[in-house]
């Protein structure tokens, strides 16, 4: 949901990593097929510490490697009014970090 008061505030786009970058980072495969390209100011995502360029790699404790898996995990794990654990990775960092995102009351995935 991206309209009204019950949204998470993340904008995503497809991710295609450059082979040289992957080799330099010793990555055998891309961590995901999408990444965060923007955040809405003062949104739940921004307040949780998610940053532009982050890749979501877990929702709850479920690994996600695609936008479809992310949406499916959100549908099952995001409970309105509760905190949701996400593991996000900024690719220039050594490893992913955990953030807790407050799911707004009335949230539903469109």
Sheet with most strands: strand arrangement: 4-3-5-6
Total DSSP helices: 3
Report the average pLDDT across residues.
87
Structural class: alpha+beta
From N to C, what is the helix and strand string? EHEHEEHEE
- Poorly predicted runs are none
Q: How many β strands by DSSP?
A: 6
Cα radius of gyration in angstroms: 14 Å
Taking the sheet with the most strands, its summary is: 4 strands, antiparallel
Helix residue percentage:
10-25%
Question: Termini distance?
Answer: 5 Å
Q: β content, as a range?
A: 25-35%
Structure notes:
The protein has 110 residues and is α+β, with helices and mostly antiparallel strands. Helices cover 20% and strands 30% of the residues. It contains 3 helices and 6 strands. It has helices at 19-24, 44-48, 67-77, and strands at residues 10-14, 34-39, 54-59, 62-63, 83-90, 97-102. The strands form 2 sheets. It has a 4-stranded antiparallel beta sheet with strand order 4-3-5-6. β3 and β4 (62-63) form a beta hairpin. The longest helix is centred in the middle third of the chain and has 11 residues, at 67-77. The chain is globular. The N and C termini lie close together (5 Å).
Which properties best describe this structure?
110 residues, four-stranded antiparallel β-sheet, two-stranded antiparallel ribbon
Summarize this, please?
This protein has 3 helices and 6 strands. The chain is an alpha+beta fold and about 110 residues long.
